[in-house]
Amino acid sequence: MSVAEARRVAITGLGVVTALGAHVETFWANVCAGRSGVSAIERFDASELPVRIAAEIKDFDSTPFIAPQAARTMDLFSQYALVASLLACRDAGFVDDDSIAGERTGVVVGSGTGGYATMEREAAAFRAGGLRDLNPYYVPTFLVNMASAQVAMRLGIGGPSLTTATACAAGANAIGEAFRMIRRGEVDVALGGGTEAPIHPLSLAGFCAMRALAPLNDAPAEASRPFDRGRKGFVLGEGAGMVVLEEYERARARGARIYAELVGYGATTDAFHLTMPRPDGRGAIACMTRALADGGLAPGEVDYVNAHGTATKLGDVSETRAIKAVFGARASTLPCSSTKSMTGHLLGAAGAVEAIVTALAVERDVVPPTINLDHPDPECDLDYVPGTARSVPVGVALSNSFAFGGHNACLVLRKAEAYA
Fold this sequence. Notes:
- A ten-stranded mixed sheet has the order 5-4-6-7-1-8-14-13-9-10, sandwiched between helices. A two-stranded antiparallel ribbon has the order 2-3. A two-stranded antiparallel ribbon has the order 11-12.
- The chain contains 13 helices and 14 strands.
- The protein has helices at residues 24-32, 68-71, 76-91, 116-129, 138-142, 146-155, 170-183, 201-209, 248-253, 282-294, 313-327, 340-343, 350-364, and strands at residues 9-17, 39-40, 53-54, 105-110, 161-164, 189-196, 239-247, 260-269, 304-306, 336-337, 366-367, 390-391, 396-402, 407-414.
- The protein starts with 8 loop residues before the first strand and ends in a 6-residue tail after the last strand.
- Helix content is 32%, strand content 18%.
């Protein structure tokens, strides 16, 4: 299907649950102000671990959205996804939970780890007391598809309900696949996004064993340092980001607010290493190039890149090289920023939350900053918008997500009125 033949797709609703806020406007204000959501872990005693900080959501309360009895059958990752979905639907003007029910609506939710807390808790219960102590809802609580299933059941969605499990690219892949559903005419409305609740002792210990996390326990707000030569790894985050996508003319006909038009999606695989990206950025280059071509756009039309930017030694350099290869001479003046410097790394939810940041940047002509970029790595020499948000025209923006296993996903967004 050519770009000219494909149906257009509008982003009409945004929902977030993060350490920087569970309301889009609060979240955006904190991102633009350069506030860090990283703090000491309070959910459990992490004193025996070398890393004791994370972008943890404090005092999460699902009761305004989910009945306590229903919440008991949901892992936290599913609760985050459902709350973010309901917020996105209300933001889109769908006041009743069943207002988009039916087979012409779909949902795709990405997650890397699924019900980690449930698996850890029930494994301990089984070891201690055997079968009699195992929760009968154990399996349908931890399964990675349960976030999308819970959203579909709550909203009465009868179209496709799918799950992407591509690690740190899962949220972006989910939005991209939801985008394709609408584009091909399979559905008229789709929710897409990602969710993750990995802040638990075993998960944290696993990343510590990999030496992937920044151990700045005494200065948590300074721990996530993308593109800085003092970076020591990423900071674990949690939460969810969900967007409402609609066929463009349908959205206009009902008078919906359109944050941005989603015009391109690319997905590739490095096929190189379990955790390391290709040093030359070849997979990322192909992904960005495909996404732009999918949207019928040239690299010179892009005004902002929301970088994957995890603050890992190899990842930041590889992404920088890839951006240079795609954008050529323009790369040196193209604003690129990593909002993981504030949100931490939400793993499977990262790409979705960052797509929301990108949509707001396009709508409001504001590029968020990269904080903690005090001493740039000489190999990371692009315009990473250090420290302070910047008001610049943003007609087209690209959001990058790259993952363990070599999974790459890129989304391209365009200002809504550009081709209204």
